[in-house]
Amino acid sequence: ANISETRVQPRKSQDESGYGMYALQDIPPSTPLFTVPGIALLNSITLRKHYPKTKPGLTNTQIIALHLFLHRPSSGTSKCDPLFGPYIAILPEDFDAHPLTWHVKQAFSSEGEINGGAEATFLSLLTPSVSQDLERASKAFHADWKRVHDYLTENLGVCASATNPRVSDGTGPIKSIWDFLWAWLNVNTRCIYYRVKQNRSDPNNLTLCPILDFANHSAVHPTTWPKSTRSEVWNVAPPRGKDHGDDFTLLSPPDSAVKEGDELFLRYGHHTNQFLFVEYGFVNPRTRLESSGFGDIDISPVVEALFMDRGAMGQWLKTVLEEEGYWGNWTLHVSPAPAHPDYRLTTALRLLDSFPSPVSDISDVDDRDERLNTWREAANGSRDAISKSNETRCRRTLERICRGIAGAAGSQIGHLENVFAQQLADASGWSEYVKGCVRTLWQEEEQVALAVLESIKMGAEF
Ligand SMILES: C[S@@+](CC[C@H](N)C(=O)[O-])C[C@H]1O[C@@H](n2cnc3c(N)ncnc32)[C@H](O)[C@@H]1O
Q1: Pairing outcome for strands 19-23 and 8-12
Q2: N or C: which end of the chain has fewer CB within 10 A?
């Protein structure tokens, strides 16, 4: 299928973001940059007729990753996928610098299968919330690998059709987790939203899209945006039985013209640096502070530890917060000023401090229902606060949390420099890049925590 005449081309970026999408000419606002026909997009609609059916069906992530896995280019062969070969040939060669790769490798090295060396060290230098979120990403990866592995074991003929020699060599998919990781990370870092399902918010609404997937993320530059497809306009899934969905057109930024040679960006979403690093393997640089998303941190692991330190009482409080939808996802923000905790965190701390130490057993608290009701009223906004003393204790707890985060960040930044100088200097071509990302993550922890401490000192209302 032909892609329409395009006004952009992929080119190596000046910085470390790999390839980017660049304007071939001056382009006015809201102008179509290119159109990719539905048949040239890689998604469940274009792929499903090539694979035996299964129940439950493979998710869109699983089927796209399966297809890339079967056709990962290999230096030992010139064979390529007859459907999407030219597109697959220009995907990144590897994801060695991606933190999920280190995580998966470390699990194997602890089983003695590979030497986890530098990767284990990189992992040990990450911030607590990045480490925690990496567990989530790793679980999702392993669940998809298990499902695809089971599918291939039931459908060995699919392996025989692979152009990836490590999959088609007759040993089955067993040994090829690294090829699947490469495939899965391509899906995770390059897919965009695209309607394949009836429900607009179905997580299966995604596709790989040639050319567009060279667009880097920016939270500060004017960004390109997809033209609404027919399915989006009419709020319907593409008709059943069709072998492709709608064509995909990308438009130039709506409110600014682009000059020939400019890089064109996409906004991947309003994400924290912690999330960008776990999902995509990069962070917004610190120099683009304010509007770039630098200045928002998730501190859930630190707060979780406070609850767990309270033993049985902490467990009970956790159950309450889970039931009421306030457990986890606790954040601090630099802007809008004054730097502040988010409402979820304030609400969780109010509960923690409604049952202060040293009480460790909930059955010792006679008025527990009364305390819970007061907390609920504050949580749902029918009262401003629980009490003056509760507010004071919460602020002290928050102060303690922020001091801990800023202190840990300060010492980790120094530690990081030493470890990179002594152990990782020659680890790989990208270790400087990784050091920059990890240092930015720690600096952000330090700056946000210090900013919230300043707010507390100034008596800011949250
Ligand atoms: C959809 S691809 C974009 C094209 C990619 N740069 C390439 O060379 O193929 C997404 C990946 O590009 C990189 N990337 C995107 N935006 C970036 C940015 N602002 N800074 C650094 N790397 C970025 C990350 O590695 C991310 O996983």
Answers
A1: antiparallel
A2: N
